Amino acid sequence: MKQPIIRLQSVNLHYASVAYKERSLKTLLSRAFHRGAPRFTVQDVHALKNITLEIKGGERVGLLGHNGAGKSTFLKTVAGLYPVSSGHVQVEGEIRSLFDLSMGFEPDATGRENILYRGLLLGLSPTFMRSKVAEIIDFAGLGEFIDYPIKTYSAGMQVRLAFAISTAVGGDILLLDEVIGAGDANFMTKARQRIASLIERAEILVLASHDFNALKSLCVRGVVFHHGEIVFDGSINEALIEYKKVNEMKDVL
Q1: Using CA atoms, how far apart are residues 229 and 237, in angstroms rounded to an integer?
Q2: Which residue among 26, 57, 125, 183 has the highest number of C-beta atoms inside a 10 angstrom radius?
Q3: Does domain 98-202 have CATH number 3.40.50.300?
Q4: Residues sharing a CB contact under 8 Å with residue 149, sequence separation 6 or more, in sequence order
């Protein structure tokens, strides 16, 4: 069996400007009444710039950077959610990711039905998901609401169900984006315990966070992103120092 690995070579990723253009009736009317005004052109966003990085089995890596620096985009690129514009991405191993927890729910379907739908999105078989239904319902603590349509759930209920489904099984590579706020104190205690178990079983952990204590306690290596580029790659303690330096420079500018 191959050892899990994440390898990016000269990777660039652009967000197309068309994704940022408004298409609402309000926008069209506004343009009609302001034909003489100078137009603002939205440029493509160069979200990842020439990223070359390798993460091997056994590594615990923390990603640091200001909001918009490229951390989350990097994670989603590794997870295969974003196609790269150029370069090469190689990932060996089964990925489990905890971000965009609301993704993959069908509002008109019940919570029970959505367990199966979301499981399929995660690459899990219907047979496996059916074997996990009782455990997921119990962990999410939704009771009779599991047979109500998702559109009747509060945001907290949706996150609890999504978290329970997404963590029903671990993987070789665990991708985490920030701390997950998933409900009341009792549920958060269960959530932290389950995340700790997933981290312990994972061969590779990549955690993007602004929580320095979490990064120091969970990670050995730190990678600092700034405007889509990697500006530092080394020990987590040195990475925290470098991140503070980068932020101080940003504030001065």
Answers
A1: 20
A2: 183
A3: yes
A4: 107, 108, 109, 110
